[in-house]
Amino acid sequence: MLDSYKLKSTSSLPFPYSKRLNTIGTSNADLPLVDPGMYQLDITLRRGQNLAARDRGGTSDPYVKFKIGGKEVFRSKIIHKNLNPVWEEKACILIDQPREPLYIKVFDYDFGLQDDFMGSAFLDLTLLELKRPTDVTLTLKDPHYPDHDLGSILLSVILTPKEGEQRDVELSKTEVLGSFFSVKSFWWRSYRPPAFPALGFSRAERQNLCCQNTQFQTQSLRLSDLHRKSHLWRGIVSITLIEGRDLKAMDSNGFSDPYVKFRLGHQKYKSKIMPKTLNPQWREQFDFHLYEERGGIIDITAWDKDAGKRDDFIGRCQIDLSALSREQTHKLELQLEEGEGHLVLLVTLTASATVSISDLSVNSLEDQKEREAILKRYSPMRMFHNVKDVGFLQVKVIRAEGLMAADVTGKSDPFCVVELNNDRLLTHTVYKNLNPEWNKIFTFNIKDIHSVLEVTVYDEDRDRSADFLGKVAIPLLTIQNGEQKAYVLKNKQLTGPTKGVIYLEIDVIFNAVKASIRTLIPKEQKYIEEENRLSKQLLLRNFIRMKRCVMVLVNAAYYINSCFDWDSPPRSLAAFMVVEDMLEDEEEEDDKDDKDSEKKGFINKIYAIQEVCVSVQNILDEVASFGERIKNTFNWTVPFLSWLAIAALCVFTVILYFIPLRYIVLVWGINKFTKKLRSPYAIDNNELLDFLSRVPSDVQVVQYQELKQDPSHSPCKRKKNNLG
């Protein structure tokens, strides 16, 4: 039988620690301040009871945030229109000190607006009995209105100490980014002296605590020999969203505009929107990193897109990865809960890719045997073996110089994030230093040679999100192997320089045939990022880019007109008929739609106008990028792609010389018409568009352009000047 007790809210107990309550059994309240092992906190968010109504309909859309040390460590899913929600979500959190209380905050989700606060409470982890499941009921309170009854939250928690040997393994895993804004600060907090309140601790105890912490800092900064090359995630989950069946109609026309959201921990994806259908066909693929050995739960929600107002919830379902066998594709037909219809998915669990972190003393490419094995793996003789494994990338993050001072002390606490598509790894933090040295080696598995390596430097802050210090974006095809280079850091938009340089040494080994084949396959989608917002500057820039593309077409039209100035009357007449057909007025919509639009509120109209402007902004960007990519293909912006296009044209010319065109068209038509029969769940793609998606637009060319270092701002130069 689980122990059950009720804790008071944050308004009734002093901050930051509550008064200790007497519980049955031995708690961990009397543990020493510095424990050699970390702690694992397993939380099961059960349900909420009698929560506060924050919406006009007398309901709420609640979700829960968990925080430790001011950092968000977990966020639950949203339960729509329910004051007694049932979550049954699990979270596994690593903590270095159980004396930090766990804060729980409940919010009401509001689309497009600030979420409403529904109450908070906290759990004193020192009251928990180690290695024993405990049921907890937390009463929610609002500090500004302590008399209001805001309901309660039910949890199940288990606090388990980690052994000292395991701690080193976990520390190496903390270099995984995951959600570094949420968890990085308290995972690495043992690197700085802890800021415990003086109340209740003697001066000698605090000094002893700092000394022990300093000793542990020296040990933890060195990765153990045993785990230097440990893999940072245990597998990859590949999900193919095939179709939806008999979804619920959410619009007045009897249809929906459905799209699907996926979430595994902090990894999120969003499918494309399928307009006016109840049986959508998506054919999209998404890849998740699997960090837990026992698997995890993938939350899936289906939504109906509505312009100018909150999207309608269609239904939800889940996938328990622990119930699926590995190295096998599973076809799942999932019934949507809290709604109608089914989703059809293909799910495959595969082994982990080659991704690792090590010190400079462990270099795969300097070891002759390992280097030969890597070169053999990507040799031309193995061009058709595992086509998805295109190449090998090794990044040495050596040091940075002259960084921006982000703290009031004139210093920064920098750490470095290395990203390749959805693979994100990070270094340790070097505290109070503007010229940090990391000396770390990161290895990645290349799935697309046209990917861009992004290296970002952040300043770690204990009580808020990390501050941005600088960023560089380096296309893999522009890398010169084995050369240590100083890259000037850029701003967030990668349009101009910021303060500081970072020293990197990068090596790329890849198979050119595999890379060429992968060029004709759709690009890997990135995790859901911040949605595009309306920007006057961005809108104007996209308009100018679009104007350039249009002017190219206009000039081409003038050229054609000068060459064929009414020399062919039938052609001119045909062009006139086409233009007349394009200018034909569209039919007016029904009066019912006009009446519905008149009933919209003022705020909804503003949202609708803003969404239309954002759509226009994005369409201008897509059209302009398409034209720029065609231009950059022919002006050799990326030589690899230009040579690939020439090789494809040469092969097609040779084939056309020996085989008549009608037979080629016949084979192409048979392939297109029988593709669905041969592979019913294949993802639709257009090889030409996939090729053009790899060619950078003019904006991306500027973002990827390497800036030259200003000698006057070099730290070495400044030292010489100071000596003079």
UniProtKB/TrEMBL annotation:
It is a multi-pass membrane protein. One of its GO terms (biological process) is regulation of neurotransmitter secretion. Its main location: membrane. The keyword Secreted does not apply. The chain crosses the membrane at residues 640-668. Residues 20-138, 217-334, 368-489 form the C2 domain. GO terms for molecular function: calcium ion binding. GO terms for cellular component: endoplasmic reticulum membrane; recycling endosome; synaptic vesicle membrane. Keywords: Calcium, Cytoplasmic vesicle, Endoplasmic reticulum, Endosome, Membrane, Metal-binding, Repeat, Synapse, Transmembrane, Transmembrane helix. It is found in: Cytoplasmic vesicle, Secretory vesicle, Synaptic vesicle membrane; Endoplasmic reticulum membrane; Recycling endosome. SUPFAM superfamilies: C2 domain (Calcium/lipid-binding domain, CaLB). Belongs to the MCTP family. PANTHER family: C2 DOMAIN-CONTAINING PROTEIN (PTHR45911), DYSFERLIN-RELATED (PTHR45911:SF3). This is Multiple C2 and transmembrane domain-containing protein 1.
